[in-house]
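Q: What does the assembled structure look like for these inputs?
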Amino acid sequence: MSVDTSSSRPVDTSRPDGHVDGGDAPQNGRLGPLGWLRWGWRQLTSMRTALMLLLLLALGAVPGSLFPQRSADPNGVTQMIARDPGAGRVLEFFQLFNVYTSPWFSAIYLLLFVSLIGCVIPRIRHHAKALTAKPPVTPSNLARLPAYQARELLGHDVQDVLGELHRDLRRQRYRVARYTDHQGRPSISAERGYLRETGNLLFHIALIGVLLTVAIGAGFKYTGQRVVVEGQTFVNSRLAFDSFDPGRFVTDASLPPFSLSLQSLKVSYVQNNRNAIGMVSDYTAHVTVTNKGGGVSRSTIKVNQPLSVDGNDIYLLGNGYAPQITVKNPAGKVVFTDTVPFLPQDANLTSLGVIKIPDGLAKQIGLLGFLYPSEVNSTSGASFSNYPALINPVVSLNVYTGDLGLNSGIPTSAYALDTSKLTQIAGPSTPVHSLTLTPGKSVELPNGLGSVQLGAIPRFASFEIAHDPTQYPMFGFAGLVLAALAAALYVPRRRVWIRAEPKPGGVVRLEYAALARGDDPRLDAALTQLSNFAHQKGTS
Amino acid sequence: MTPLLDQISLILAYSVIAVYVCAFIGYTLDLGARASAAVQAEAPALVAAAGATMLAPPPQLETSPPRAGRGARAGFALAILGMSLHLAAVIVRGVAAGRVPWANMFEFSLTGSLLIMIVFVFVIRRTRLMILGPIVTGLVVILLGIATVGFYVPVVPLPPALQSAWLVIHVLVALLATAFFGIAFAVSGSQILAAWQEKTHRLRGRAARVVAALPPVEKLDRLAYRLTIVGFTLWTFTLMAGAIWAGRAWGRYWGWDTKEVWTFIIWVVYAAYIHAKATRGWTGNRSAWLSVIGFAAVMFNFAVVNIFFSGLHSYSGLK
Ligand code: HEM
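A:
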C-alpha cells in the first residue's frame, strides 16, 4: 500500500530553483548594487510575491465597487462630493473615484505582470530543456517515493518483461529511457504530461497577451453615442455624435462614413401576464444602412443583436419619445420646429425634455417639458403615466424667460436647463398653470410671447457605435487562456520508474515507483495498472 | 395555467426544504454516532501505513472508508428524495416561465442549490466525507429558505437585455462553479477546524470526537484543491462568457460594473489560492482560509451585490 506521505509537493527537478520560494535575503551586508538588484529581482519574481500581488489586486479592486466611479457613474460621483465635500476630497486624494485607472491600482497589476514575465522566462528555458531531455536516471531507493509497489513474477525473462512494460508505457504516451545501475539491475524511467507545464506557461503568456491587447485596443478603439429619431438619418463622423470617446490613435479618417436611417422603432409590451403588464418584451429598430461603398440595405437592430457595418458594431442601448414641437411668434411665423428627445424618467416613460429658443421671440425662452405617454391624474391632482405606450399622451410645459446662457461660450447640455438666470412665467410656483398639450393642439405662451404646438410623437433610439480592432486577438487569447488552463490543471505530470531484479529460482522482483508534479489522484492507480499488466503478461 | 405551475413549483420548493431538513437531522445524528466510534477508526490507517513497505498484492487505492451508519444512510436517502423533488421544482418553474429557470434571484437560488446538492452527492459517494452532510444540507436549507421567503417573484417574461443564449450558458456555468466552490468551502472549513483542534485541543467531548473522526488534514486539503480547480476553470469561463455577453449587449467587454468587479475579485482570490498551494509557508491552513474567503466573496457577489448595489446587472427581479 502506498501512503500519502505528506501534502508537501514532492521534490521535482523539472521545476527551476527559486520557483517555490524567492530565496533568502543576502547573507552578508556587503552585497554590491548589482547583487542587490539581482536579489530584488529574485524577490519580485518569487512565488510569494506573486501571491501577495494577487491578493493586493483583489483587495485593490474592492473600493471601486463601493464608491461610484467616474467612468461608469459620473453623476454618482458629483452627488457624493456635493453631499459631503470633505469626504469627497479624501476619496479624491486616494483616487477612489477612478480606482481602475489610478496609479496605485496600475502599479499593482503592472508589478504583477513584471513578476509574471520574470517568472515565465526562466521556466520557458527550463521547460524547453526538459522537453528534449531523457527521463532522469532511476533513483537508487525507489521505496522512498510517494507511490511504490513491489511484486514478484515467476519464470520470466527480465528483458522480456521490461520490453512489454516499455511498449505499454509508450502506448500511454510516456517518454521512456532504459538504465542499468552499478549493480547491473535494469530499469525503466518514464515521464509523461509535459503538456501540463506547457499549458501552465501558455496560460501565463496568454494573460500577458490579454493585458497587451487591452492596452493596444485602448489606443485604437472608439465608441460614440447618438440619439436618432424615427425618420432621421445619422452619418458616422466625429461631429455627428452626441458623445464620442476615441482612443489616442483614432483620427477622423478612422471612421468609415456609413449612414444609418431609423425607419421605425417597434416596441412590444407584455399583455398577457398580470405580473408584468407594461413590461417591455421586445425592442426592434428597423434601419436602412448605406455603407461606405454606397451599398444600401435594410436591417434590424435589437438589444443583444448589434448590427455590423464597415467594421463598426451598432448597438441599441435606449429609447424614448421625441415630441415634435413647433413655436411661433405672435405674427404666426415659425421660430422653432423640431423633434425633441425627452429623456425617460421611469418605467412608464414619464419623460423630461428641454426646448431652448434663443432667437425669434421678444425674449429668450426656455421650456421644461414633461411627457406622460398615458396620462392619469392622481387624487392630489398631479399627473403621472401609468403605461409606457402612447395611449393618452400629454405634454406639459413650464415656461421660463431670461438669459439661456447660450452666448457665454461655455458649452451647455441640450438636455438640461440652467434656470439660475431665468424667470419662470408658467408652471408650479407661478400664478399661470403649465401649458398642457395633446398631439395636434396649440396653446398661447404667457405674456403674448407667441404660441407652442405639439405635433406627432415619434420614438427615438439611442445607438452606440463601437469599433474595436482588437476584438479577434482578444478572443484568441481568451480561448488560449481557457485551453491552457485546462491542460495546466488536469493533465497529470508524472514520472514512473520500474526496476527489475532477478532473484534465485527464476523469480523476477519488479519495483514500481511514481512521482507526480502537483496534485495527481491517479498516481497509485497508474502503478497498479502497470504491475497488473506485467503480471498478466507474466502468467500468460 | 402558468400561475398554477408557478404555485406548484413553489410548493415543491417548500417540500424540498422539509425533506432536506430531515436529511440534515439524519446526517447530524450520524455524526454523533460516528463520534463514539471515532476511537476505532484510527486503527485501519496504521495498517495501511505498514502495508506500504510490504510485498503485497496490488493494494487498494484508498483506505476503505468506515461504512455509512444508519443516520447517514437515512440522510443520504432523504437527500436523494429531496433532490428529485428539487429537480421537479426547477423543471416546473422552467415550464411555467417557458424558458431556462435561472433569470432572477429566486431562480438562481433554486437552481443553484440543486447544483450544490448534485455536486455534494457526487463528492460524498466518492469520498464518504460525512461531515459534508450536515454542512451542505444545512447551507442549502438556508439558501432555499431565503429564496422562497425573501426572493420569490412570480414568473415574468425576460426583459430584452436578458434575451440571449448567453443567459443560458453564462449563468448556468456560474451557478455550477458556485456549487463546486461551495463544496470546496465546506471541505476547507472542516480542514481549518481539524487543524485548529489538532493544534489547540480546545474542543472537548462529543465535538472533539466529531472532529477527530475527520479524515487527515492533508486529505481534506487535497480534496478542496481538486474541487476548487474545477470551480476555477468554470469561473474562468463564466468571466469570459460574461465579458463576451457584455460586448454583445452593451458594446463593451469590460466596464468595471459592480458585478464585473466582484466576478474579477473572486477569480483573483481563487488564482491566489492555487498559487498558495505551491508557495512555501502558504500550503495547508493559510490556503484553506483563501478558499473560505473566496466563497465568502462568491456569496457576497450573489446576495449583496445583486440586491444592494446598482449597476447594469440589476437582474435580481426584486423591486
Ligand atoms: C496575472 C497574474 C497571475 C494569474 C491570474 C495567475 C494564475 C494562475 C493560475 C490560474 C494557475 C493554475 C494553473 C496552473 O497550475 O498552471 C497558476 C499557476 C502557477 N502560476 Fe500563476 N498567475 C499569475 C501570476 C503568476 C506569477 C507572477 C508567477 C510567478 C512568480 C506565477 C507562477 C505560477 C506557477 C509556478 C504556477 C504553478 C503552480 C502549481 O504548480 O500548482 N503566476 N497561475
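The pocket of protoporphyrin IX containing FE is lined by residues A 19, 45, 47, 50, 112, 115-116, 119, 200, 203-204, 207, 485, 488-489, 518; B 271, 274-275, 277-278 (CB under 6 Å).
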